[in-house]
Amino acid sequence: MERNFETVMVEQCAPVLAGLKPAGLFRYETGDCADLARRVKNWNAQLNPKGLQVRVLKGCVRTHRYLVYVYRESKLCAVLADEKVQSFLRQEGYRLPETGVPDVYGLLTQLSRRLCCSAEFPHEVGVFLGYPLHDVVGFIENRGQNFTCCGCWKAYGDPAIAQKHFAQLSKCTAVYLRLFHSGTPILRLAVAA
Q1: Span 35-73, pLDDT tens digits
Q2: Is-contact 15 157, C-beta < 8 A?
Q3: Gap between the Cα atoms of 68 and 95, Å rounded
Q4: Judging by DSSP bridges, how do beta strands 52-60 and 65-72 pair with one another?
Q5: pLDDT tens, 18-33?
Q6: 15: helix, strand or coil
Q7: In whole angstroms, how large is the CA radius of gyration of the chain?
Q8: How far is CA 186 from CA 9, 30, 141, in A?
């Protein structure tokens, strides 16, 4: 069953729209890829002035399933500029410049290729979603097991800190969904950053 693009975007990316997370990812199913392209172009035109971008990272015309990525380039750039994150991504096989600001577009292109072409799911995607590096590394090293708590993702650090963060993100999503379903447009929900 095809779900409304905007509803799914609010359900999965409310913390991004609110400026609490650098990025979010959601699966969208549609038999009309031209309509999806128009939606992405339209949302970029509306959301770019607020610092948000929408991009399809993976798509399959056979299954009609697409992975749509919503992000704030400035916040994502800050995450990707961290030396430990860069070291981790290099270790995972990403090409990064030796110095300077990371090429966000280039890194997302590399991630997109991995999503489309790798036999294994690229769990380093967590870094691109703003998950703490120790949680991403913990998930990979433990193959998704032995986590200290589970919420929006599997956490491998202090469970109290993780649960507090998960509660903040969940509350944001609930508030945004309530506002959206009562008629507040996404453009008003998206804060400028």
Answers
A1: 999 999 999 999 999 999 999 999 987 889 999 999 999
A2: no
A3: 23
A4: antiparallel
A5: 999 999 999 999 989 8
A6: helix
A7: 17
A8: 9, 20, 38
